[in-house]
Amino acid sequence: MSTVNELAEQIKLLYPLQDKQQGIRYRVVDELAGTTELEAVTGQPRYVPTHSLQDSSRWQFQV
User: Fold this and answer.
1) 54 with 44: CB under 8 angstroms?
2) Sign of the C-alpha dihedral computed for residues 10, 12, 17 and 23 taken in this order
3) Domains of the chain: which residue ranges?
4) Per-residue model confidence (pLDDT) at position 1
5) 35 contact partners, CB below 8 Å, separation of at least 6
6) Which of 10, 15, 19, 60 would bridge with 25, disulfide CB 3.0–4.6 Å?
């Protein structure tokens, strides 16, 4: 059985992108025409301009 720490590490690997302002983790689903589709851990989709993901004050990649 996995410990809580192991589960947290697995979530980091599956959802490597974090919105620093909202504290929500995302994974990249698709990119099309300058828009990136993200999926939250809860399964809720979010669409953001691809270039905005370069803003390190807002987004953090953890791999």
Assistant:
1) no
2) positive
3) 4-61
4) 56
5) 47, 48, 49, 50
6) 15
Query: Could you tell me the sign of the dihedral formed by the alpha carbons of 14, 56, 58, 46, in that order?
Result: negative
Amino acid at 26: Y
- Assigned token pair, 29: 């689903």
* Ramachandran angles phi, psi of 62, nearest 5°: -125, 110
* DSSP per residue, the chain: ---HHHHHHHHHHHS-EEETTTTEEEEEEEEETTEEEEEETTS-EEEEEGGGGG-TTTEEE--
CA distance 20 to 9: 18
